[in-house]
Hints:
The structure is a single chain. By secondary structure, this protein is mainly β. It has a single domain (37-168), classed as Sandwich (Immunoglobulin-like), CATH 2.60.40.1240. It has one helix at 2-19; strands at residues 32-34, 41-46, 53-66, 75-86, 102-106, 111-112, 114-116, 132-142, 147-153, 164-168. The strands form 2 sheets. A 5-stranded mixed sheet has the order 1-10-9-5-6, with no helix packed on it. Strands 2-3-4-8-7 form a 5-stranded antiparallel sheet, with no helix packed on it. A hairpin with an 8-residue loop joins strand 3 (53-66) and strand 4 (75-86). The longest helix is centred in the N-terminal third of the chain and has 18 residues, at 2-19. 22% of the residues are buried. Mean pLDDT is 84; it is low at 3-24.
Amino acid sequence: MKKLLTxxxxxxxxxxxxxxxxxxxxxxxxxxxxxxxxxxFDIVGKxxxxxEVFTANVTISNIEFVENVSDNENYSxxxxxxxxxxxSDVEILSGYFGSANFNVYDExxxxxxxxxxxLGDYKSANIRPEGSNSGKMSLMFDKGEKPAQLIYSSxxxxxxxxxxxxxxxx
Length: 170
C-alpha cells in the first residue's frame, strides 16, 4: 500500500508539473514605462517589415534646455545624450532611434511640436548585434513651450510593435 501511494504521488506531481505553463518569453508591446534620466533601461521593439524582435539597453542623460541660440531666436531646444547598445541577435534599423521616435509633452499631456534641432551630433544608423551608437540629440520647439516629459517610442507607426519609455523633465 505504501508503495502504491508513493507511485501515485510521484505520478500526480509529474502530471501537475507537465500541465503547468512555463513563463511566457514573448515580449509585451503597447506598454508605457517610467524611466529615469541617466539610468540605463532595456527596451524591446518589433520590426514591422520582417517581424524580428529587437532589444537594446538605452541611456538618456544630461538633459538640458537651451534658449537664445543666435540663428534660432524664436525657438528653444532640448538636448540630451543618447547611448544605445543592441542586446539582440538582429540588426536594429536606424528608423527606430531617429528624432521621430522622441516626443515632448507639456504638463497637460499635450504634445509639444518638436523637430530635430541643430545642436546635436547624433547620427541615426543601423546597429548590428552587440553594436552601439551614441551622441547628443537635440529637438527644437517654439519658445515659451514648457516641456514636462520626454518620451521614447520603440515602434515605428504601429504602437502594437513597441513600447513607450517616459522621462519626467520637471
